[in-house]
Each structure stands twice: as structure tokens, then as C-alpha cells.
């Protein structure tokens, strides 16, 4: 668990609006004059916001969106990358201490919806790939420009490869500004879960979904989310090893031999309901 952020989320926040109502927390990127871009000091703000969502028992669901209809988030404000606060983001430290923008990076196990209006670029993809359900208006589009400004597309881009086909993630990552994925294409590929026809209908649709989620068992929802996200933490090789171990553990169970024997004898098998039973034990 990362250290608690020293930001008071009950006070006005730089570039972000935060509201809690009826069990739903709404986080709104609010720098429309700068494309709702991210400034380095905002990472600690987001760390504090996600910690509040995580730890406030009255919050059942969170929604992250942005002000205006033109931009959801244009990523890190390049003009501020060389500023005095750049060290907030570019830290030569372990990942868990250095990247704290998204709910997943802050261990939030409550459902999080992302409502995307307009253009989403670079760092804005943190919120998309690490939310549970993504809604987008048809005017939304997605692009990654890390390589165009001499940076490595890695963290958000790995998330892209988890949510849609590898080729699509690589195309967005490697072509940079030369490729912009439309909302419709993102929906076809699975990056977006629901399309909304008009930007003005986006947040109401997200809040209605949030209200439905809030009616479910908080513990059941949390554990269900952990189960599904947790499955992504294990790579293919580890999955095979785990499967092989489970398969071998069944070799000594009576059912492993009963099935083939019943098949050869053309009869129905008689299964042993005891998962701990072992072949040969208790035989005379």
C-alpha cells in the first residue's frame, strides 16, 4: 500500500472537481482551457482522491469524467514537464511509488466508471484502461503521443493491450499522433463498453449505471472485481503452471480412474463426492 497523500480533498483542488452524493463519487477533470491536461502536482491530488474513494465507506461507486465536450484529457501538459514540479511524475523509483493516477494504481476495489467525452490522449488513457466500465460519447476519440515527444509509451499502453487486440494497441502506441481511434472503433474493439449518442447524455448515462451498481452488495461487488482483475495479474506461463499443478493433484482421486473404467464398461460412473479422497485408501 502506498503512503497516504497529504492533500485535503474537502477543499478546492487544482484542476479537478470532486463531489460525493448518494453513494456516488464523481471526479471531474476541470482544465478545459488546457484540454483537461494533467499537471505534475495533480498526481498527488488523484492519489488522495482515490484513497478517499477507497476508504470512505459511504462511497459505493466512482465516476471519472471531464468538463466540456472537446477534450476528456490531452495527457500530460508538455509545457509543464520541464517545470519545478516535474519530479512529482518523473521519479526514479519503483512503479508502486511513482505512478498513482488511476483507481487500479491506488488499490480501489469499488466499481469505477469512466465517461469519455471528446479527445483522450496519452496520460488520459490511465483513467480509461484502469476503470471497470468505460462509456463514451460518439464524439470521443483516443490517441497516444508518447513516441512523438520522445517518451516511451508503456504504462497506459500495457493497459490498452489488456483491453483490446494487441495489434490495435500497438498501432495506437507506435503511430502516435498519426492515428486517432474513433469512439465507434474503440467500441468495436472493446476499449469502450457503451456508446452514448450525444455528449450531453454521457454523464447522466454513467450516473444511472452507477446508481444501479450501488444497489448491489458492496462486499460482493468488491470481491467480484478483485477476482476478475486478479486474473489479469497472472501471465500465460503462470496460468499453465497452476493448471498443470491442479491437473496432477487430481490423478490420485478415485474419479480419475473411475471415469475411464466406467466408459470401458459401458456404465454410468459412480463419482466420489469427497475432494480429499485418494485411490487405494481404505481398500481391503
Give the termini separation.
Answer: 55 Å
Q: Count the strands?
A: 10
Tell me about the biggest sheet? 6 strands, mixed
Radius of gyration: 24 Å
**Kindly state the mean pLDDT as a whole number?**
88
Structural class by sheet pairing and helices: alpha/beta
- Under CATH at level 1, the class of the largest domain stands as Alpha Beta
Helix count from the secondary structure assignment: 11
Q: Summarize the amount of helix as a percent range.
A: 25-40%
Order of helices and strands: EEHEEHHEEHEEHHEHEHHHH
CATH topology value of the largest domain: 2-enoyl-CoA Hydratase, Chain A, domain 1
Give the DSSP E fraction (strand runs of 2 or more residues): 5-15%
How many domains? The number is 2
| Parts with pLDDT < 50 across at least 5 consecutive residues | none
Architecture (CATH level 2) name of the largest domain: Alpha-Beta Complex
CATH superfamily of the largest domain: 2-enoyl-CoA Hydratase, Chain A, domain 1
Strand order of the largest sheet: 1-2-3-5-7-10
Q: Based on CA inertia axes, which overall geometry fits? A: elongated
Structure commentary:
- Helix 5 packs antiparallel against helix 6.
- The strands form two sheets. This protein has a six-stranded mixed beta sheet, with helices on both faces. A four-stranded mixed beta sheet has the order 4-6-8-9.
- Helices cover 37% and strands 15% of the residues.
- The chain is built from eleven helices and ten strands.
- The chain has two domains: 202 residues, 2-enoyl-CoA Hydratase, Chain A, domain 1 (Alpha-Beta Complex), CATH 3.90.226; 46 residues, Orthogonal Bundle (Lyase 2-enoyl-coa Hydratase, Chain  A, domain 2), CATH 1.10.12.
- The model has no long low-confidence stretch (mean pLDDT 88).
- The chain is α/β, with parallel strands linked by helices.
Amino acid at each position: 500500500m502506498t503512503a497516504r497523500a497529504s492533500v485535503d480533498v474537502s477543499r478546492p483542488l487544482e484542476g479537478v472537481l470532486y463531489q460525493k452524493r448518494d453513494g456516488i463519487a464523481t471526479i471531474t477533470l476541470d482544465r478545459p482551457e488546457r484540454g483537461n491536461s494533467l499537471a505534475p502536482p495533480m498526481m498527488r491530488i488523484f492519489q488522495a482522491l482515490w484513497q478517499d474513494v477507497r476508504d470512505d465507506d459511504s462511497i459505493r461507486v466512482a465516476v471519472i469524467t471531464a468538463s466540456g465536450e472537446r477534450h476528456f484529457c490531452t495527457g500530460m501538459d508538455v509545457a509543464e514537464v520541464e517545470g519545478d514540479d516535474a519530479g512529482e511524475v518523473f521519479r526514479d523509483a519503483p512503479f508502486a511509488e511513482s505512478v498513482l493516477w488511476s483507481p487500479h494504481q491506488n488499490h480501489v476495489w469499488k466499481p469505477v466508471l469512466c465517461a469519455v467525452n471528446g479527445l483522450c490522449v496519452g496520460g488520459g488513457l490511465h483513467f480509461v484502461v484502469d476503470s471497470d466500465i468505460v462509456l463514451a460519447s460518439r464524439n470521443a476519440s483516443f490517441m497516444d503521443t508518447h513516441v512523438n515527444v520522445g517518451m516511451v509509451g508503456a504504462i497506459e499502453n500495457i493497459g490498452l493491450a489488456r483491453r483490446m487486440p494487441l495489434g490495435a494497441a500497438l498501432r495506437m502506441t507506435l503511430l502516435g499522433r498519426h492515428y486517432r481511434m474513433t469512439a465507434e472503433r474503440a467500441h468495436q474493439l472493446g476499449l469502450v463498453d457503451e456508446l452514448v449518442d450525444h455528449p450531453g447524455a454521457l454523464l447522466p448515462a454513467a450516473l444511472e449505471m452507477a446508481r444501479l451498481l450501488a444497489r448491489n452488495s458492496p462486499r460482493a461487488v468488491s470481491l467480484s472485481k478483485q477476482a476478475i482483475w486478479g486474473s489479469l495479474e497472472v501471465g500465460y506461463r503462470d496460468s499453465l503452471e497452476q493448471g498443470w499443478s491442479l491437473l496432477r493433484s487430481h490423478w490420485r482421486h478415485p474419479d480419475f480412474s473411475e471415469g475411464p473404467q466406467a466408459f470401458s464398461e459401458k456404465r454410468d460412473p459412480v463419482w466420489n463426492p469427497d475432494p480429499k479422497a485418494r485411490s487405494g485408501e481404505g481398500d481391503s
